[in-house]
Amino acid sequence: MIVEIQILINWFGGSEKSRTMAKEMTNGDHSSSIKPPPMPSPLRFSKFFQSNMRILVTGGAGFIGSHLVDKLMENEKNEPLLVEVDQIYHLACPASPIFYKYNPVKTIKTNVIGTLNMLGLAKRVGARILLTSTSEVYGDPLIHPQTESYWGNVNPIGVRSCYDEGKRVAETLMFDYHRQYGIEIRIARIFNTYGPRMNIDDGRVVSNFIAQAVRNEPLTVQAPGTQTRSFCYVSDMVDGLIRLMEGENTGPINIGNPGEFTMLELAETVKELINPDVEITMVENTPDDPRQRKPDITKAKELLGWEPKIKLRNGLPLMEDDFRLRLGVPRRKWVHVNCTRLSGGSMSTAASKWLSLLFSLFCRAEANLKP
Q1: pLDDT in tens, 216-264
Q2: In this model, does residue 96 exceed pLDDT 90?
Q3: What residue stretches are annotated with the NAD-dependent epimerase/dehydratase domain (predicted)?
């Protein structure tokens, strides 16, 4: 999808900066000689006083991609598709274990061939390209939290390898095009992200728990329940991606929320906030499930001035509202009655509690009111 963003290009400073920016490397181990970036399409400069920034987003109809497109299009105008672009956000790839395990060949082809196609376009038109890589490149990490310098612990032939290794190859291609052709690249290693528009039954833990709680189904925690994840709300993620694209650092840079939760803690939080009546059950785990995952976001703070703002307890209800709307399940209003006060204070404490319980059960069975 093409997003036209109105900008005023500084001819005397901006163009020279763009030609030298690719030489700036985030990590010290990428210090090999780098060619200057290819010149942008002549179309960019032939209209530079009038033209808008042209941005290509692959995967723009997906979960994070759709939020990114919304942000990019704020207060801007939508123009017809022009393949001459200035920036490419490359998000396209199945990210749910259910989907990438169902079609692993398509998944790895998207990561490899899709990335090659986008890099070829970036080379032709002189565009800057951002790849959304993943924390899965760290595999089942042996260091905690994970820094960008960690090479990972990945099973190359497991059921998740189409995604894990596919993203690792995509990162390799990005740096090879950067070193060989001078392409301006940005690499974001994104950690678990949640928010509105997630597929309701996509198999990821936050969407699973919220959908189950809204449907009044047991929350299924994969054993042993002590494995950890860190969850970043989608608006924070989009802000981080845009800062990385607009900044001067190639990456890779971790983008995620360092708040760490066990799966049991997440289930208890969803139960508390969304449906206190649901049960929590343990189910068998999937192969190669990482035991822990937490980003070190020091580089994001120092180089991008970015850190997440929305806490898990504040983000989950926003996602719940979206799920209830799509599932057609309204919120229920619970009614609490002080039975001792109704009886004029003469009822015993035990009797009051029993009557309150019975009344509450009656209300929960009968009341199904919209908020």
Answers
A1: 999 999 999 999 999 999 999 999 999 999 999 999 999 999 999 999 9
A2: no
A3: 55-76
Q: Running DSSP on this structure, what letter comes out for residue 17?
A: H
| Closest alpha carbon to 79 in 99, 102, 56, 60 | 56
Locus of tokens 């925690």? 221
Neighbours of 243 (CB within 10 A): 19
- 210 phi/psi in degrees, rounded to 5: -70, -45
Q: Where are the alpha helices (DSSP H) in the chain?
A: 14-20, 42-46, 63-72, 97-102, 104-109, 115-125, 161-181, 205-214, 234-246, 263-274, 298-299, 312-327, 339-342, 349-366
User: What integer is the mean pLDDT of 48-55?
Assistant: 60
Q: Which tops the pLDDT comparison, 23 or 169?
A: 169
Is-contact 130 89, C-beta < 8 A? yes
User: Distance between CA 89 and CA 91 in Å, rounded?
Assistant: 6
What is the mean predicted confidence (pLDDT) over 212-219? 95
pLDDT(15) > 50: no
> What is the pLDDT averaged over residues 23-45?
56
Q: How far apart are CA 277 and CA 217, in angstroms?
A: 9
pLDDT band at 44 (very low <50, low <70, confident <90, very high): low
Q: How many CB atoms lie within 10 A of CB 300?
A: 26
Question: Using N-to-C axis directions, what is the helix angle for 161-181 and 115-125, rounded to 10°?
Answer: 20
Mean pLDDT throughout 26-46? 57
Give the count of beta carbons closer than 10 Å to the beta carbon of residue 348: 10
Cβ neighbours of 45 (radius 10 Å):
14
Which of 309, 332, 331 lies closest to 320, judged by CA? 331
Report d(CA 45, CA 105) in Å as an integer. Answer: 40
Helix (H) or strand (E) holding 253: strand 253-255
Asked whether 51 and 271 are in contact (CB, 8 A), the reply is: no
The catalytic site residues sit at: 163
> What is the C-alpha to C-alpha distance for residues 270 and 266, in angstroms, rounded to an integer?
6
Enter the pTM of the model.
0.73
Cis peptide before 145 (omega within 30 of 0): yes
87: three-class secondary structure by DSSP: strand
